[in-house]
Amino acid sequence: AQSVTQPDIHITVSEGASLELRCNYSYGATPYLFWYVQSPGQGLQLLLKYFSGDTLVQGIKGFEAEFKRSQSSFNLRKPSVHWSDAAEYFCAVGPPGAGSYQLTFGKGTKLSVIP
Amino acid sequence: EAQVTQNPRYLITVTGKKLTVTCSQNMNHEYMSWYRQDPGLGLRQIYYSMNVEVTDKGDVPEGYKVSRKEKRNFPLILESPSPNQTSLYFCASASGTTYEQYFGPGTRLTVT
Q1: Tell me, what's the pLDDT at B100?
Q2: Distance CA B42, CA B40 (A)
Q3: Does the pLDDT of residue B34 top 70, yes or no?
Q4: Across chain B, what does the average pLDDT equal?
């Protein structure tokens, strides 16, 4: 069965500092990989996705993620965090070709930003 | 505006009283899903639908029913709600080509 681990429950960074949120997955083949963000009281919004090809993918709001097959990881990064990035971030995986309806989510990492 | 809508947004009910949470999308998406979100557990899929009249169980289907009679609608039915179904529920839809899920704003359900 597929699974997703986000090792960090809560991360606090200063505004302007760099950010890396970790995501490790367990799956038999290379899955479809996603990062979603949930602002307080809101639904989830897709930040970026990886299906195949270039292992460094760019997303919205200045985020990027790198797929590392050897480490089964898909870590999310941002070079300079803004106060508005405070939110909860979810990594998700899905079977290739069917990721749209069988997503497995990690438990999330809550990001706090210190002014 | 492309969107997924859910109603109601907030609901407090009592054990055993049947309820339906509606979900509608205006993007002509084939796929729709229901998730529940609980603190410390993240999102877990309840049911999903690949198209009209095609539904299947997700990871936590017990106590829930769904139907997909029209492409745009995917209601979630709790025939006999129990307190352990108190949760935040999200509906989502996705295109069969982009595989990006679009989420509704959520429905906070409390069962007493």
Answers
A1: 84
A2: 6
A3: yes
A4: 94
Sequence-distant (6+) residues with CB within 8 A of B74 are B23, B24, B25, B32, B33, B34, B49, B66, B67, B68, B91, B93
Per-residue buried b or exposed e for B28-63, using 16+ beta carbons within 10 Å of the residue's own CB: ebbbbbbbbbeeeebbbbbbbbbeeeebeebebbee
Please write the tens of the pLDDT for every residue from A74-111: 999 999 999 999 999 999 998 887 665 788 999 999 99
Greater confidence (B10 vs B42) lies with B10
Chain A interface mutation, best of B101, B103, B107, B108, highest count of A Cβ atoms under 10 Å: B101
Closest CA to B65 of B73, B74, A88, B112: B74
CA neighbor of A51 nearest in space, from A67, A27, A70: A67
- What are the chain B neighbours of A90 within 8 Å (beta carbons)? 42-43
Contact A104 B59 (CB under 8 A): yes
Q: Which of B42, B94, B106 sits opposite A100 (nearest CB)?
A: B94
